[in-house]
């Protein structure tokens, strides 16, 4: 994970990949995942329970928070972000079913200055729920995808805790 590279300007939208993964391992509410393609780590993401308000959602517990999502700059533009985002929703649905915790979907916020991220989330079935001004790097869009939406079918899940 320490070898993942950010594209120029991307640091405004995501944090350091290694630091994000370590934070994910240190906190029980977080589930970090490594995104793999061709046997190589190409990204990271974290699902967090009980923190949905951090993305502008009205409550903390009805949705998983997708955070710290990063695709290595050398693998961007290949559709991996869309696939990983959709697979993260599938993983969150399985976690909810296993734990009986009651979440109904996944929420995230994406910076309005990140059109590639916004497009990837829309293509992964997330719906824009409006502007959120709580982020430290400017206006965000709150995005949500319900578990009841049709699964994307056949997507490999990111590698992570099971």
Overview of the structural elements:
By secondary structure, this protein is of the alpha+beta class. The protein has a single domain (10-146), classed as Aminopeptidase (3-Layer(aba) Sandwich). The chain has three helices and six strands. Mean pLDDT is 84; it is low at 152-162.
Number of strands: 6
Number of domains: 1
- Backbone shape: globular
Q: Regarding CATH, which class?
A: Alpha Beta
The CATH superfamily is identified as: Gcn5-related N-acetyltransferase (GNAT)
- The percent range for strand residues is 25-35%
Order of helices and strands: HEEEHEHEE
How many helices? The count is: 3
- Strand arrangement, largest sheet? 1-2-3-4-6-5
* Structural category: alpha+beta
Low-pLDDT residue intervals, each spanning 5 or more residues: 152-162
CATH topology descriptor = Aminopeptidase
